[in-house]
């Protein structure tokens, strides 16, 4: 299911065990071989690239500057001014008034569970499809992909009724179950094409040694594709963390809200003072940014593997 | 961002991996597929079927009776100004989520890779790449609140204060409401901001498989940066451009959160998109059958776009082969 043979190689390398060459290595390889000095035009282009990046982070920087202003400081200064004193009122108010620790826990719990369970489900599915080559696998993969393609309003009402009947509304598990299926659809797609090219010799050797299917899956296949599984896990975590529509529909009590929902609710309230809102926005993106810094490399690898597979 | 793939027939180079069977039984594999099959049926296929069916009924929800409506709901869509408006807006959303980010992404990726990466070092270029990508990982809801703050009306808004500072006279534009036709523009800027990192990362990765000799040869031949960009960069990463356009077009047709957070479809329904409209009808409407018809129509359209894209890609590849 790849586009060209060339890509096939690079994605297999990045999705499998091998690491792709880092940017630095590539630069060295293709190098400033000529060693000529940088031209004025190159300096200008470089500055344009930096300027563009600065524009992109600018809104987040504004958030950072203004989140630590006291309400009076905020109202008398321009948003571009640095805070006159370091004030935590906004952050404190947000933290205490909005049940934020609970929302943070809900988001972490939901995203972690989805990441783990969706990876497990993807492995099971793709073992049957990629290694077992069950009949009709092409259709099965396509049907699974639909879970990823369909607009989520399509799921909204039937699932709302279903979870209502099961007593799962405003329960984290309603969101967890839903997104385990949606995310594992993508995982199944990616992993089944990867496992479809799994080296036959290894499986044969294991079978000759008397290993059962389950043992082969657990002790041979999973360890070998572990790098891909960790990439998937990181992505499932972030995608789930960012979800809005279905959590908005299923989670209705203040104890069940996730981080994006808390913030959306706060911004809808007329009487919220601006410093609390800004502080809340900043706090709400900090977990994602930390996650981003830790997994930056994995992310870059994952986006690429996802796109060209 | 949920990447979606383009399924295709794979040329089989070597024998598929298979665990040799003593009895030749393949049935056992279905056992592994059981949980996935069950879950996807309940969570995905049951709702699809249920909504498609519901789109032919009138239903107030809850314990009310479902009344068969035939094609009523579907016919009503074409008379519905809000629905038609929401689809017109999708064209603007496609500009904001597909066309502009892809074009900008091409230029930025080429700049980061070809100029900054090669002449100023890979560290700087990967740092800049990460910076461009940052908005992609923020919760869209949170990004929406952030832009809502920036665009607050009156002198309270950051953008207004900024313009006041530059122009010297007080600016109090109600960007997201009032009589200004700026709300859709604001939603579009937010989408561009969120989307831009995705093509940049994909295109840069694509450029890594381009043979550097091509660039060096072109440079020796005296090709300038733009000529190299057109003849080498663009030509080589066509498959990725395709995948990016496909995935973002599908995402554009399903877009919900930015509109919900920033404008709630307002002012005067000028920022309606189909997904928001369907949601709104499910929650506040009086006929869930009609809501189901809206949702089903989006689903059908997404499926059509996906199929067209896959066909076009298959054809272009057969030509290349």
Automatic annotation (TrEMBL), chain A:
It comes from the Bacteria. It is a multi-pass membrane protein. It is found in: Cell membrane. Residues 104-295 form the ABC transmembrane type-1 domain. Keywords: Cell membrane, Membrane, Transmembrane, Transmembrane helix, Transport. It holds the Pfam family BPD_transp_1. Residues 1-33 are annotated as: Disordered. Belongs to the binding-protein-dependent transport system permease family. PANTHER family: ABC TRANSPORTER PERMEASE PROTEIN MG189-RELATED-RELATED (PTHR43744), SN-GLYCEROL-3-PHOSPHATE TRANSPORT SYSTEM PERMEASE PROTEIN UGPE (PTHR43744:SF8). This is Carbohydrate ABC transporter permease. It comes from Demequina muriae.
From TrEMBL, chain B:
SUPFAM superfamilies: MetI-like. It is a multi-pass membrane protein. Residues 87-311 form the ABC transmembrane type-1 domain. The keyword Transmembrane applies. Coiled coil: none annotated. It is found in: Cell membrane. It comes from the Bacteria. Keywords: Cell membrane, Membrane, Transmembrane, Transmembrane helix, Transport. The keyword Transport applies. Pfam families: BPD_transp_1. The chain crosses the membrane at residues 27-49, 90-113, 133-151, 183-207, 241-262, 290-310. Belongs to the binding-protein-dependent transport system permease family. PANTHER family: ABC TRANSPORTER PERMEASE PROTEIN (PTHR30193), INNER MEMBRANE ABC TRANSPORTER PERMEASE PROTEIN YCJO (PTHR30193:SF37). This is Sugar ABC transporter permease.
């Amino acid at each position: 299911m790849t586009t060209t043979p060339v890509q096939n190689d690079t994605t297999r390398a990045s999705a499998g065990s091998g690491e792709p060459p880092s940017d630095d290595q590539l630069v060295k390889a293709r190098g400033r071989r000529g060693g000529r000095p940088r031209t004025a035009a190159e300096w200008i282009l470089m500055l344009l690239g930096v300027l563009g990046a600065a524009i992109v982070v600018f809104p987040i920087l504004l958030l950072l500057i203004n989140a630590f202003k006291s309400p009076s400081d905020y109202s008398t200064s321009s948003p571009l001014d640095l805070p006159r004193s370091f004030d935590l009122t906004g952050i404190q108010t947000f933290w205490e008034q909005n049940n934020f620790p609970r929302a943070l826990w809900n988001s972490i719990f939901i995203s972690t569970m989805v990441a783990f369970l969706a990876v497990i489900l993807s492995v099971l599915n793709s073992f049957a499809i990629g290694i077992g080559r069950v009949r009709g696998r092409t259709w099965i993969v396509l049907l699974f992909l639909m879970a990823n393609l369909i607009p989520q309003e399509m799921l909204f009402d039937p699932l709302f009724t279903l979870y209502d009947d099961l007593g799962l509304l405003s329960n984290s598990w309603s969101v967890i179950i839903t997104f385990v299926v949606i995310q594992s659809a993508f995982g199944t797609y990616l992993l089944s094409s990867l496992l479809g090219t799994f080296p036959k010799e290894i499986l044969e050797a294991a079978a000759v040694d008397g290993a059962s299917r389950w043992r082969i899956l657990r002790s041979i296949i999973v360890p070998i594709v572990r790098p891909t599984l960790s990439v998937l896990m990181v992505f499932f975590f972030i995608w789930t963390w960012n979800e809005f529509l279905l959590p908005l529909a299923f989670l209705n009590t203040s104890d069940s809200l996730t981080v994006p929902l808390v913030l959306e609710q706060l911004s809808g309230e007329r009487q919220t003072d601006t410093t609390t809102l800004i502080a809340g926005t900043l706090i709400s993106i900090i977990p994602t940014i930390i996650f981003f810094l830790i997994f930056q490399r994995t992310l870059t690898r994952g986006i690429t593997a996802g796109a060209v597979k | 961002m949920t990447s979606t793939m383009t399924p295709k027939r794979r040329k089989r180079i070597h024998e598929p991996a298979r665990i040799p069977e003593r009895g030749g039984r393949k049935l056992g594999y279905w056992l592994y597929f059981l949980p996935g099959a069950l879950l996807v049926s309940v969570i995905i296929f049951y709702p699809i079927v249920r909504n498609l069916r519901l789109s032919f009924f009138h239903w107030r929800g809850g314990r009310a009776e479902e009344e068969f409506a035939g094609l009523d709901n579907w016919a009503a869509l074409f008379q519905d100004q809000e629905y038609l408006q929401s689809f017109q807006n999708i064209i603007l959303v496609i500009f904001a989520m597909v066309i502009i980010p892809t074009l900008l992404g091409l230029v930025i990726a080429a700049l980061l890779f070809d100029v900054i990466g090669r002449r100023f070092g890979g560290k700087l270029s990967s740092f800049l790449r990460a910076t461009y990508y940052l908005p992609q990982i923020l919760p869209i809801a949170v990004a929406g609140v952030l832009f809502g703050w920036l665009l607050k009306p009156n002198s309270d808004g950051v953008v207004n204060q900024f313009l006041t500072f530059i122009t010297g006279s007080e600016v109090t534009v109600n960007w997201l409401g009032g009589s200004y036709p700026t709300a859709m523009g604001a939603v579009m800027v937010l989408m561009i901001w969120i989307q831009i990192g995705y093509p940049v990362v994909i295109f840069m990765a694509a450029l890594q498989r381009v043979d550097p000799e091509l660039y060096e040869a072109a440079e020796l031949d005296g090709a300038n940066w733009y000529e190299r960009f057109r003849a080498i960069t663009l030509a080589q990463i066509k498959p990725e451009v395709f995948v990016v356009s496909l995935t973002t077009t599908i995402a554009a047709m399903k877009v919900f959160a930015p509109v919900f957070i920033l404008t709630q479809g307002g002012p005067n329904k000028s920022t309606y998109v189909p997904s928001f409209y369907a949601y709104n009808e499910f929650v506040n409407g009086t006929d869930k059958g009609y809501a189901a018809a809206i949702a089903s129509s989006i689903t059908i359209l997404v499926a059509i776009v996906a199929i067209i894209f896959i066909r076009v890609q298959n054809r272009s590849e057969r030509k290349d082969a």
